[in-house]
Design brief:
Length: 437
């Protein structure tokens, strides 16, 4: 018997909002997680991207906060931490949608924009705060945010929130929260090391595993195109001019390459924009809005758009460069085939990326299908994959090869692949602190 949201003991006002949005049947992660959250337990939930994790924590949170309205003055009772600005905005929009018939207030704080409006919103004492770590710590240090009455903490995309780039900030924030709270962790992937770190801030958490630790939706056609690096731009243009590509995300490892590709595509008559951490939040939202409304066909970006981009109708995800972290591949291609639709993930692979390709296939346990008939196919690179001969990338990992310094492997470009790291500022740059956060 198929379960409905009405069987999950949610408030009638929430059910009304869900019905208005056309949502009637909960996804597997929602079916398993919502009862556990409503019971007040700490939770670690792992489910593949695009399966409704945001609703899995938003719906029970709204229910509980509405049922436990404080008698005195309002204050922040729930905190949701996210790794990217785009994901923070998406979660805030979902909370407003699901809670439109409730009297709860939400607020979002994130970097890249002036803090003035965010401070004004905080003074209205929202019930739920969605935040990126850097801006939250900034406003907390200035006394604009009070965290001592938090009842519920959510870490969305927990694997990224707790990795080395975010762990110090997360620990600072958690140290300011009450120990008597409910802590919920949601992610598409969760390594054993990260799970152990997560349990340090939880009490007897319930584990919800809807899918294996690493899983790719079956409706995504995963293909690899072997191509010399010098031919990648021409191949990209050739693919994007095909009428079968309705809307595409193109991923690079660096923000500089994202800009160059956007300019190249524009010269080719392909409507495109770029999004990365160097752009202001207003520019990023403008690009996302144009992409969502179909005004541009292609959005080029770094891994900051691998999470939190929920745009319907993305027919293709193209990995112009394979990610160094195989798990980032899972998040990238998860932007297509949303809500049960089908999608295509194309990965360009040059000679130096054969090792990265094999790492992705080991992680997902799904071999990518090689496209044999594209006009820029490299037989030599295809043979490297078949023969198992070590590429420079593989030999470097084994310590037998030390390549000359490469621009794309510089410290600055490595930072650009991380989703919104908190910047560090020396004495000379203190005045610029607010601008970059």
């Amino acid at each position: 018997m198929q379960q409905s949201f009405s069987n999950l003991s949610l408030h009638k006002s929430i059910l009304r909002a869900l019905s208005e949005e056309g949502y009637h049947t909960p996804t597997p992660v929602q079916q398993k997680a919502i009862p556990e959250v409503l019971s007040g337990k700490d939770l670690i939930a792992v489910a593949q991207t695009g399966t409704g994790k945001t609703a899995a924590f938003s719906l029970p949170m709204l229910h509980m906060l509405h049922a436990q309205r404080p008698n005195g003055a309002r204050h922040i009772r729930a905190l949701i931490l996210t790794p990217t600005r785009e994901l923070a905005l998406q979660i805030d929009e979902s909370l407003r949608t699901y809670g439109r018939h409730l009297s709860l207030r939400t607020a979002v704080v994130l970097g890249g924009v002036s803090a003035g409006k965010q401070i004004k919103t905080l003074r209205q004492n929202p019930d739920i705060l969605v935040a990126t770590p850097g801006r939250l710590l900034d406003l907390f240090g200035q006394g604009h945010v009070h965290l001592h009455q938090i009842d519920i903490l959510v870490l969305d995309e927990a694997d990224r929130m707790l990795d080395m780039g975010f762990l110090p900030d997360v620990k600072k924030i958690v140290s300011q929260l009450p120990t008597n709270r409910q802590t919920l962790l949601f992610s598409a992937t969760m390594s054993h090391d990260i799970a152990r770190l997560a349990k340090q801030m939880q009490k007897n958490p319930v584990q919800v595993d809807v899918t294996p630790a690493v899983s790719v939706p079956a409706k995504i056609a995963q293909q690899v195109l072997f191509v010399e690096k010098k031919n990648k731009r021409a191949l990209l243009s050739d693919i994007l001019k095909d009428k079968g590509v309705l809307r595409a995300l193109v991923f690079t490892r660096t923000k500089h390459l994202a800009n160059r590709l956007m300019q190249h595509l524009s010269k080719q008559g392909i409507s495109a924009d770029a999004i990365h951490s160097n752009k202001t939040q207003n520019a990023r939202q403008k690009a996302l809005s144009a992409f969502h409304r179909g005004r541009i066909k292609v959005l080029v970006g770094t891994d900051i758009i691998a999470r939190g981009i929920d745009v319907e109708g993305i027919s293709h995800v193209i990995n112009y460069e394979l990610p160094h972290d195989p798990e980032s591949y899972v998040h990238r291609i998860g932007r297509t085939a949303r809500a049960g639709s089908a999608g295509t993930a194309l990965s360009f692979c040059d000679a130096e990326e054969v090792g990265l390709l094999k790492g992705i296939e080991r992680l997902t346990r799904v071999p990518l299908t090689a496209v044999e008939d594209h006009p820029f196919r490299s037989n030599a690179i295809a043979e490297l994959r078949k023969s198992g001969i070590s590429t420079p990338t593989q030999r470097k990992r084994k310590g037998r090869f030390t390549p000359p310094p490469r621009k794309q492997h510089s410290a600055s470009s490595q930072v650009s692949t991380q989703p919104e790291p908190t910047p560090k500022f020396g004495r000379r740059n203190r005045r610029m602190k607010r601008t970059f956060r």
